[in-house]
Specification:
The protein is an alpha/beta fold and 478 residues long. It is built from 21 helices and twelve strands.
Length: 478
């Protein structure tokens, strides 16, 4: 069988984008977007991929001339859709550890405009072992600082040769954090004041938020897909249909990319906080809310949960009646996002087990659901019944009456065991159990018993779930 590079002719684009990271996510997310804008909107932006670690996939990427097949599987306009596209945006890959000359020369290319990265959440960090004299620094910010300095020297500090940095690492204020570490390197290495001024005045560091589920390489069906495609592709990647890229910049009136012309869900804003909050509260919050309810109901996957007549109704009500009213974007925008989330949950191509999402459920509830609960109470003057019920279900879930091992912080697992054992031995009643859990200030960042009516409502729900079972208890809250 022929290989992808033998059957798909290369397309040459101007190298405008330096990308740190060659993994599945960027290839199924940003590179797909650049490819789409190149083909549909004349963006003419080629990507040069930099391998951030000594070992990586650059040899495979170059062997395939930067080409690979992307499968997008999920719900699109209400229907299950599986699409495929050959991505042509990547022009070449550089392993700076083996290709030092190519790496050094790249900074002098005048057409470069953007730096994209996804080096994991731990990637944007200062490494004390990095020195300016190293041909290749260990950390991504170290490499970037040296790269920017070479560009500064090559173009004699020309302001129009600065770059736009858009990190995609999943940390809050990722652009600001990256700039902070770059400036720390510049100071630590005693680089010229003029360079630091150029960093601040000629370069832009954007905070960004990315959202797309990328299962990755389809190992279990690779050969069957090759037969269908008619060629071998060792870099195939699968992603869901949904995508969202929010980029925070002061230049919202001058978008960096022709996103709208290509129908891409790229949002330029001067404040991405509402979008981050929306994602955490609706997408992640719905996951955390459904886990204990679904598992205690006897459901295994996210898709089964949202499609179940009873649990699905509960999840829908939690999102649209209790979470959406706590957010500050327009109701139409929030409702649209909520419906998109439900479509993603129904994706027939992804089997997302509730068991896997149950990891660290207690801390997840504190960050993803509790803020919605508290804001709802503040705005409506009453407790949100579905979210309170989910809190009670979490407490019952951690009694441990499930077919798998619950994974959480050891101290919370120990506390739950002690409390449920005490209840079983008639040493405490339900209210004492609930009061003890809600009093854990190191978990909730406050004593939740101080919230009027919460202890009583959670206690009532815990008792109902434990004594009647989830299938009966959930009827009362619906």
């Amino acid at each position: 069988m022929k290989r992808i590079e033998e059957v798909c002719s290369p397309i040459a684009y101007t190298e405008k984008i330096v990308q740190f990271g060659e993994g599945n996510f960027l290839r199924a997310f940003t590179d797909w977007m650049f490819d789409k804008m190149n083909k549909e909107s004349g963006f003419d932006a080629g990507v040069v991929v930099i391998q951030p670690l000594a070992k990586g996939m650059i040899p495979q990427l170059n062997a395939q001339q930067g080409k690979y097949t992307l499968f997008l599987n999920g719900i699109k306009e209400g229907k299950a859709v599986s699409e495929k596209v050959v991505i042509d945006a990547i022009q070449r890959g550089i392993n700076p550890y083996d290709q030092v000359e190519e790496w050094l020369a790249l900074a002098s290319q005048p057409e470069l405009e953007f730096v994209i990265s996804n080096t994991t959440e731990a990637g944007i960090a200062f490494d004390t072992a990095d020195t300016f004299e190293m041909s290749v620094q260990n950390s991504f910010p170290g490499k970037l600082t040296a790269f920017l300095y070479r560009r500064f020297v090559a173009f004699e500090g020309a302001k129009d040769k600065g770059l736009v940095m858009i990190p995609c690492e999943l940390i809050n204020k990722n652009g600001e954090k990256l700039k902070e570490v770059v400036l720390k390197y510049a100071d630590n290495w005693s680089l010229p004041v003029a360079f630091i001024k150029w960093i601040n005045e000629a370069n832009t560091f954007c905070n960004s938020l990315v959202d797309r589920i990328v299962p990755g390489y389809p190992f279990d069906k690779a050969e069957a897909l090759w037969e269908t495609l008619g060629y071998e592709d060792n870099l195939m990647v699968e992603g869901e249909q949904f995508h969202l890229w929010v980029i925070e910049t002061e230049k919202i009136d001058k978008p960096f990319f022709p996103a709208k012309a290509s129908g891409l869900n790229i949002i330029f804003t001067d404040d991405l906080t509402p979008y981050r909050t929306r994602k955490v509260r609706i997408l992640n919050g719905a996951h955390t809310t459904m886990v204990p309810v679904g598992l205690l109901y006897g459901i295994e996957t996210v898709k089964e949960a949202v499609e179940d007549e009873v649990v699905g109704k509960f999840i829908h009500a939690a999102i649209f009646d209790e979470i959406v009213p706590t957010l500050d974007l327009s109701k139409s925008e929030l409702d649209a996002f909520g419906m998109a989330v439900l479509d993603r949950f129904k994706n027939p191509y992804v089997k997302h087990y509730l068991q896997s999402i149950s990891l660290n459920s207690n801390s997840k509830f504190e960050t993803r659901v509790l803020p919605s609960l508290l804001t709802y109470l503040e705005r409506k003057g009453e407790l949100p019944k579905k979210l309170v019920f989910a809190l009670a279900a979490t407490i019952v879930l951690f009694k441990g009456d499930v077919s798998f091992e619950l994974k959480d912080d050891a101290k919370w697992l120990s506390l739950y065991k002690e409390l449920w054992d005490s209840l079983a031995a008639d040493r405490i009643e339900y209210k004492a159990l609930v009061t003890k859990v809600l009093a854990q200030t190191t978990l909730w960042q406050q004593d939740l018993n101080a919230i009027e009516g919460l202890t009583e409502q959670v206690t009532s729900n815990v008792k109902a779930i434990h004594e009647k079972g989830m299938k009966e208890a959930i009827k009362e809250v619906l």
